[in-house]
Amino acid sequence: YQDNGFEIMAVSFDSYESMWTAAIKADKLNWVNVTDLLNTVSPVRQLYNVPGNLPYFYLIGKDQTILMKGRDLSKLDSQLNELLND
Length: 86
What we know:
There is one protein chain. The chain has about 90 residues and is α+β, with helices and mostly antiparallel strands. A two-stranded parallel sheet has the order 1-2. Strands 3-4 form a two-stranded antiparallel sheet. The two termini are about 15 Å apart.
């Protein structure tokens, strides 16, 4: 979807930077990756009400509003296709 102006940003909540960077390399995650090494006590997690079970997805519009959130990647994909085909 990148050709349509869509960008993926992965936010990780980890405790060990070395494990996080190893996972990015192993899984070949070629998009923006950031981590909060405060893990479960992260204020970012609290601010966005990110649940304990990850992954959790947010679709954020150009105006920075949350268009969709949840754990179902197929729903995210469907919503994204709708937005890009409008």
